[in-house]
Amino acid sequence: MELIQQLKKDGAGIGACREGLMKLRPDMDVRGLVNLYFDEHRFCIRNDFPSLTFLRNNFKGKSEPYGVYIDSVARKVNCRDISLNGTSKAMLLYNGHIVANLYVRNESMAVVTVRGHAFVIIDVFDDAHLMVAAYGHKATVIVRKFGSARVEIMSGNDMIVVNETNKNTY
After folding, report:
1. Half-sphere exposure of 135 (CA within 13 A, CB side)
2. CA-closest candidate to residue 78, choices 96, 90, 56
3. Model confidence over 17-53: pLDDT tens digits?
4. Contact 91, 71 (CB under 8 A)
5. Residue closest to 104 by CA, chosen among 64, 140, 139, 144
6. Which residues of the chain have pLDDT under 70?
């Protein structure tokens, strides 16, 4: 697959390790690539890999069913891994017993409500905007704010921890 070869070439160009590049197999479909993205999200986000332009050209309209949104709109309940890229907008609800990760990047915007026993970690980057609320004494939200991202707590101050990193990325 030509796409895999381009990802390997681009990854090598930014210093991806041999072990990481070997995970890009020729038979990978979009679902496999999205899973690899979430497994290696720190490297990908730190290095803006793949770039937003690459995501738009190769994954827009294909990766959303697996949790990577590119200039898209999402309304989801209890999705474990979600990455919002470009100008995506999302309304997300987490309730019950779930542990989830959310990555809000570029100029995306997310409204997140956490209830019950849900535990959600949200990393917000770039010029993204997050509005978050937590309800119930067991709900927990950890927000890591990077760069000029904006975070608004709408409700549940005692259940939401915001860590200002004073860095642009991991």
Report:
1. 8
2. 96
3. 999 899 999 999 999 999 999 999 999 999 999 999 9
4. no
5. 144
6. 1
Q: Are 30 and 62 in contact (CB under 8 A)?
A: yes
Which residue in the block uniquely carries the two structure tokens 């949790």?
67
* CA dihedral sign, ordered 161, 72, 58, 99: positive
Handedness of CA 6, 9, 13, 17 (dihedral sign): positive
**Which pLDDT belongs to residue 26?**
93
Say how far apart CA 20 and CA 146 lie, in whole Å.
25
Assessment of whether the complete model's pTM goes beyond 0.85: yes
pLDDT at 84: 98
Residues in the chain: 170
pLDDT recorded at residue 1: 57
The one-letter amino acid code at 124 reads V
CB 110 within 8 A of CB 92: yes
Q: What is the DSSP string of 43-89?
A: HHHHTT-S-HHHHHHHTTTTSGGGTEEES-EEEEES-SEEEEETT-E
The tokens 């999705």 sit on which residue? 79
